[in-house]
Amino acid sequence: xxxxxxxxxxxxxxxxxxxxxxxxxxxxxxxxxxxxxxxxxxxxxxxxxxxxxxxxxxxxxxxxxxxxxxxxxxxxxxxxxxxxxxxxxxxxxxxxxxxxxxxxxxxxxxxxxxxxxxxxxxxxxxxxxxxxxxxxxxxxxxxxxxxxxxxxxxxxxxxxxxxxxxxxxxxxxxxxxxxxxxxxxxxxxxxxxxxxxxxxxxxxxxxxxxxxxxxxxxxxxxxxxxxxxxxxxxxxxxxxxxxxxxxxxxxxxxxxxxxxxxxxxxxxxxxxxxxxxxxxxxxxxxxxxxxxxxxxxxxxxxxxxxxxxxxxxxxxxxxxxxxxxxxxxxxxxxxxxxxxxxxxxxxxxxxxxxxxxxxxxxxxxxxxxxxxxxxxxxxxxxxxxxxxxxxxxxxxxxxxxxxxxxx
Length: 407
Known about the structure:
The chain is 37% helix and 27% strand. By secondary structure, it is of the alpha+beta class. Strands 1, 2, 3, 4, 5, 6, 7, 8, 9 and 10 form a 10-stranded mixed sheet that branches. Strands 11-13-14-12-15-16 form a 6-stranded mixed sheet, with helices on both faces.
């Protein structure tokens, strides 16, 4: 059998050998592969099953060869017999038709800094990007200095296992992240991408985008190492939040956004000033008992949607309802006295039996609502003053365990 590019192969700097596809026999190996064995007073084996400690028969080679041919394995790690020693090596495998070229890298003492500088150098062009390598079997995580900088901690304090990494991921995001990575490994996928929040040393959270890619596989095709990086996308998320605030309707509840509601609020306040009519503002805290924080993000979103629909059905056509924070709504009641406002709001916190069933199915409980009331002009003559006064009433209500409080 002729060896392709025989002279170049023989003296290439990387140790390499060629295996016959049909038989698993080593038909050639280059100078540096031979030297590696000479250093141990040994000679290379002449078959794959005698070279590779993970193989027990030629059938193991045929299975691996099939995976190489169909492209499901391009890189794997295996214990290679070098004399009486077993050396963990990374093999880069290339199908050449009748044979397979295997380039060998000793990974017993893998230099992580070298990996950071060469394997994913393109990923480190952004200063906030951080590289990591995860060994699936030992669950060892190795982090670059840039991750330590990102988190504001010394490099030796960076997470060294999946559990330690998940411990600093936001509780609402950790299950989604874990499920995605588990799926990546279970299905031997090549690539995944996910966005989540991670906690810094000062206990604040920043948004990151994580991109992971299979780095090496075992000879059976299962994933051995995953390599990837995280990038700070907090500024991008802040921009997205700003654009959402500029939108007319809230994406989750369908209610007006803060920005859109402000126009309506100012218009109604102007009318109240000109016509000397009453105007009441109510700040509605949907989670005054901090119950929703114990739910998953999906369940909490359903609860907020359900609560918002319940309240919207209770208000009048002229009233203006907006979602101004994650679990807080602002309700403007034109031409409405405090007495009439309290009557309407009592209908909200005291649903009918049929309404209770719908609310409970949607993870919502009006007992969690706390409503603060402010009136014009007694509690303020601008929208901001009224909102601040209503918010203070909510805080007083939480402190006193009252559901409706007039400032």
